[in-house]
Amino acid sequence: MSRQTGPKAGKPEPLATPMEDTGIIDFEIIELFFFAYRDFVSDPDAILEKSGFGRAHHRVVHFVNRNPGMTVADLLDTLKITKQSLARVLKQLIDSGYIRRWPAPRIGGSASFIRRNRDESWRLPLLSRNRAALSGHSKGLLRRCGRA
């Protein structure tokens, strides 16, 4: 039996006109968030790639730096990722010397504490690029929300 293609096969026709802005969905805000996110991650992605890291590494380093002493459980709860994913990222960051891990201070305590190392060679460029990307789009978002 051959597969049908074309209009008879029930393929939807491409849209000839864009979706109408009925006021239910604010397309401009969606687009502003899309472009803000793209700009927020593009430069950091390039910086991280040079070190063999990705966005997951960026998120872990960010939260560990903002909250020294976080436990593995805290990171899992904050990032909403699996233990397996976090373990892989933590191992790479620990092996590379970007963060350190200490045992729990008492028996029966949290699995371990995660603290940042003093090496900030790529963290600061990431933050400055994130700040620049957000400031470039925040005016448009605030204007669109009626707060500018």
Structure description:
The protein has 148 residues and is mainly α. The chain is built from five helices and three strands. Strands 1-3-2 form a three-stranded antiparallel sheet. It is elongated, with a radius of gyration of 22 Å. The relative contact order is 0.14. The mean pLDDT is 75.
Spell out the blueprint of helices and strands.
Blueprint: H1 27-50, H2 55-66, E1 70-71, H3 72-79, H4 83-95, E2 99-103, E3 112-116, H5 123-144
Antiparallel strand pairs: 1-3, 2-3
Helix pairs in contact: 1-5, 2-4
Mean pLDDT: 75
Distance between the termini: 62 Å
Task: Estimate the global geometry from the Cα principal axes.
Answer: elongated
The succession of helices and strands, N to C, reads HHEHHEEH
Q: How many DSSP H or I helices?
A: 5
Provide the spatial order of strands within the biggest beta sheet: 1-3-2
What is the gyration radius calculated from CA atoms? 22 Å
Looking at the chains present, what oligomeric state does this protein adopt? single chain
Strand content: 5-15%
Summarize the structure.
The protein is mostly helical and 148 residues long. Helix content is 53%, strand content 8%. The protein has a 3-stranded antiparallel sheet with strand order 1-3-2.
